[in-house]
Amino acid sequence: MEQSGAYLELRNISKSFRDGRGNRVEAVHDLSLQVQRGEFVTIIGPSGCGKTTTLRMVSGIEDPDSGEILLEGKRLTGVSPQERNMPMVFQSYALFPHMPVFDNIAYGLRMRGMSSDAIAHDVALASQMVDLVGVEHRYPGELSGGQQQRVALARALVLKPRIILFDEPLSNLDPRLRTQTRRAIRRVQELLGITIIYVTHDQSEALSLSDNIVIMDHGKIAQSGSPETVYNSPASPFVSDFIGNANFFDGEVSKTGAKTLEVHAAGHTFSVPIERCDSGLEAGSAVRLAVKPELVSISREKSPFAVTVDVASFVGPITEYKLQFEVDSSDSPRIITAIESNVEGFTTVYHAGEQVYMHLKDDQIRAYRA
Ligand SMILES: Nc1ncnc2c1ncn2[C@@H]1O[C@H](COP(=O)(O)OP(=O)(O)OP(=O)(O)O)[C@@H](O)[C@H]1O
Ligand SMILES: [Mg+2]
Fold first, then answer.
1. CATH number at residue 37
2. How far is the CA of 28 from the centre of ligand 1 (A)?
3. What are the tens digits of pLDDT across the range 53-92?
4. Is the same domain home to 355 and 336?
5. Which of 26, 52, 221 to mutate to test the pocket of ligand 1 (most atoms within 8 A of CB)?
């Protein structure tokens, strides 16, 4: 068999289910992914795109219909979840309510028949790592959401897993706790060199935690790469929207040149650098232009794009504007998002109802085949 050198490899895996009416639902379609040892990989994508199904196949709870999963080049087909030792940590912590924290963490070790001395040692270490020292005697019902999630994390860590699979573990927590807990996860991961596959809906979580981000859509990988790559060079409007909340303008290529493509959109002609355009576009091709909100600026200085401020949300370091924009009077206004950073003394805050102009830079636009 061909060796990829990856620690974990998903090779062309597919999985379908039958729904209640007997219709086939393809949850994962011909998905291939390589994960290196010690890597933190995040899978992100809309609801129903196959994230949980992918994790369940890696952990061994579910078998792929086709394709295979390899660990260090060895097929995992037929290897039980216990033998795989790739626990899943969920959003609902799934703790045993009638057991104190210590016993919750120790559970998997007892199942393995470890001596009580060794268990005490390992549980103490895991509790320390996730900052639970002092609450080991409490029951889950006596803990905060963040503490419960850390018990779930300790319970996975104590098994010295090869890989931990996280399925939206922090979505129940408030923003501050979420930040704290994800820092704890990353710290433990770096400390122990554990390999992590982490599923989230939250783009900032994905960008801040990961070595590698996998964006899924309808059971397939839309793009994978480092946070910087997927953010700065999204491969499609879907990725651009999912990771960067991009604004879109539909248009048509009016002229091709050696360095730029001229695109007519939003009542204007843009010269988009060729390296920011899908390849193979020619005059007449339908395109979709994408611009990230932080690359749209507004001011009172005239531009071809007159807009009306619909909503201005001041959130400290930035102000997010929702702008009404109409290409011509026959067009119904559309909403464009702009983000301005608030550097003291350099910011004008515009208010709802104000007429201003939006400024788009041709070299900050991307052009995708529509
Ligand atoms: N046991 C099942 N029976 C039937 N359909 C299923 C089953 N499990 C998953 N599906 C379907 O497969 C698709 C992928 O589901 P999956 O749970 O992997 O999505 P997800 O990306 O984790 O979504 P979410 O973000 O909402 O958790 C969905 O259409 C889902 O309805
Ligand atoms: Mg899910």
1. 3.40.50.300
2. 9
3. 999 999 999 999 999 999 999 999 999 998 999 989 887 6
4. yes
5. 52
Q: In this predicted model, what pLDDT tens digit does every residue of 127-184 receive, in sequence order?
A: 988 888 999 999 999 998 888 888 988 998 898 898 999 998 887 777 887 888 888 8
Closest CA to 230 of 242, 248, 217: 242
CA–CA distance, 104 with 116 (Å, rounded to integer): 14
Q: Give the pair of three-digit tokens for residue 207.
A: 């960008």
Cα–Cα distance measured from residue 4 to residue 282, given in angstroms and rounded to the nearest whole number: 38
Ligand 1: nearest atom to the Cα of 50: 18
Q: Identify any residues that bridge with 368 across adjacent strands, giving them in sequence order.
A: 288
| pTM of the predicted protein model | 0.89
Q: What pairs with residue 334 in β-bridges?
A: 325
pLDDT in tens, 171-193: 777 788 788 888 888 888 888 88
Domain annotation covers residue 2 = no
Ligand 1 neighbours, Cβ below 6 Å, are 17, 19, 25, 27, 45, 47-53
Count other C-beta atoms under 10 Å from residue 204's C-beta.
12
Per-residue pLDDT tens over the stretch 216-225 = 999 999 999 9
Residue 3 domain flag: no
Q: Report the alpha-carbon distance of residue 167 to residue 92 in Å, rounded.
A: 10
Question: Do the domain assignments include residue 43?
Answer: yes
Q: Report the alpha-carbon distance of residue 362 to residue 111 in Å, rounded.
A: 62
Cα(190) to centroid(ligand 2), Å = 25
User: Cα 358 vs. chain centroid, distance in angstroms?
Assistant: 29
